[in-house]
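Researcher: We are triaging several targets before committing to wet-lab work. For this one, the compound of interest is coenzyme A. I'm pasting the protein sequence and the ligand SMILES. What I need is the predicted three-dimensional arrangement of the protein with the ligand bound, expressed as structure tokens, so it can go straight into our comparison scripts without reformatting.
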Amino acid sequence: MKENDNIKVMVAGDEHTCYATEINDTIQRASEERGTGIARRTDEYIIKKMNEGKAIIALDGDKFAGFCYIESWGHNKYVANSGLIVAPMYRGAGLAKRIKKEAFLLSRKKFPEAKLFGLTTGLAVMKINSELGYKPVTFSELTDDQDFWKGCQSCVNYDILMRTQRTKCLCTAMIFDPVWENKKTEQEESKNGKIVPLKKWFSMKQQVAGYASPLKAKLKLFKRN
Ligand SMILES: CC(C)(COP(=O)(O)OP(=O)(O)OC[C@H]1O[C@@H](n2cnc3c(N)ncnc32)[C@H](O)[C@@H]1OP(=O)(O)O)[C@@H](O)C(=O)NCCC(=O)NCCS
């Protein structure tokens, strides 16, 4: 295990495409060791993610230390952070946590309305996701985008997924819904007395939709109460 204080975690760009093969080799070795997980991606795919600014890379100087990329599904309504890998010598020192946090922030920035989700058999990823606010869900809550599920075809457990009509498999599904965060913020604002009366007013007004002017809507509300 190596201390990772000097490791830089950043959004990958064109200048990092030279690491694509090493990233893929490391993913492949880890999949073979675990006997599960998704098979090797093509180098072109990893490079495309970097060119699009949809990947996070961790470097120790110029040495590859870790990686993760983001993918969107179902017309950008769902976003997954996939391909998380930490090079063996950097494991166990919190690097995956840092990479996933950056991927989370990048996903929120690029797709603020999307639900973030992940499928994993790994305890480390479950722990990290929980810390980021993800919750475990059944597969029914995930995207129904066929292209996403096609990605499972290379997993050794694909037959289980098919046998259960895609309702369950060995992976645990986890979701982060941005709506929860908005609700939490509103609750906190309300608790601190910071909630803007106008905001409350507009939500009340919505309840009496059909009333063209705020005054009429307000009158109707008072009549009801
Ligand atoms: C899984 C992996 C990404 C973890 O990377 P890492 O940098 O060692 O993880 P971190 O040090 O950030 O650990 C995060 C948390 O997971 C725990 N953890 C790390 N590896 C673990 C393991 N193999 N088993 C159980 N828990 C583990 C840590 O203790 C930590 O928990 P804490 O917050 O309670 O302290 C890395 O081992 C790896 O690349 N493995 C091969 C590829 C893989 O499995 N990818 C995930 C695909 S879903």
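Researcher: Any quick observations?
Model: The pocket of coenzyme A is lined by residues 30, 34, 37, 84-86, 91-97, 120, 122-125, 127-128 (CB under 6 Å).
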